[in-house]
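[job 4471] stage=fold_predict status=RUNNING
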Amino acid sequence: MAYTFECPTRWADMDAYRHLNNASYVSFLQEARVDFLHSGDFAYMLGDEPLPGQDGPNPNAILVTGHQVEYVRAAEYGSPVQVRLAVDRLGAARFTLAYDLISDGHLIARARTVLCPFDLETNKIRRLSAREKEWFEGYAEPVDPLPTVSRVRIGNHAAVDYPLQVRWGDLDSYRHANNVHYFTYVQEARVALLRGLAEGRPADGESPGQWMVVRQDMEYAVQLDFRREPYLVRTAVQRLGATSLTLAAEIIDPLTGTLHASSRTVLVHAGASGATPLPEWLRSAVAPWRLDTERVGH
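[job 4471] inference complete, writing C-alpha cells
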C-alpha cells in the first residue's frame, strides 16, 4: 500500500524557464516523507514529539544518506504536486523510500531516498524497533530500480571550484544544512560552470541551447555546519555523450579536506526540437576537467 501526499507549489519553486526547478523536487520528497511519519504516530523518529510514554528530551533523528532523482518531464507552477510514496527496502537500521511525483495527471519524476534512524545521545545509527518495522512493512511495495549512474571520486583531479557559503536559513531542526539544500549547492556550482563555458565560446562557435536535468544522485557523508568560512564545490566532467553531459561534484571543506557530499548530474543538451548534439567547441572546452574513468551507463 502506498501513501499519497499533495504538496502545494510555490512561486519561488520556479526556475528561469518558468518550470519547477529540479532542486525543488527534493523538497517535495521531504514534505511527503515528514507527513508520512506524522500520519502514523512516528513523528518522534524526527525528534518532533516526545517519545511515547516517556518524559524528557527526545534523542531521535533521521539521517538522509542518499537521494536518486530521475526527472521525467517538466512541470509548471500552479497545481499541487502529488507524491506517491512506498517503502522499497527495509533493513535492520535503514530503509529506502520510493516516490512517484505527479503533476496535472503526468508523471514528472521518480525518486529514491535512503534513510537511517539516528540516536543523538550516542551519536550513532540505531536499529529500527519491531513496531517501526511492522508499520513500514505495511507500506512496502515492489518497485523497479532506477538506472545506475556510477559513483566516481574527483579527489585531486582538475575541477572547477566554486565557493559555497552555507546560509543560516539553510539549517534544519538539527542545526545542520538541510539535505534539500545540497541540490541547490551543486546547482549553483553547475550554473556557474555552464555560464562560464557559454561566455567563453569562440566567436564562430554554435550558441549553446538549454540544459535539461534528467537525473541527479546525491550521497551524504558528513553534515555541513553553519560557519563564516566558505566550503567548496568541486565540479568535473564524468561523461560526455552525444547529446548529454554528466557532471560529478563534491562538496568539501577546503580547510580540512573533509568530503561532505558527492553527486552526479546528467544533463541533456536541448534545442527547440529536442535533444541536440553537444557543440564541438564545448567538448574541447571541458577537456581539462574530464575524469579518467571507465565509460559509465545512465
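[job 4471] summary: DSSP finds four helices and twelve strands in the chain.
[job 4471] exit 0
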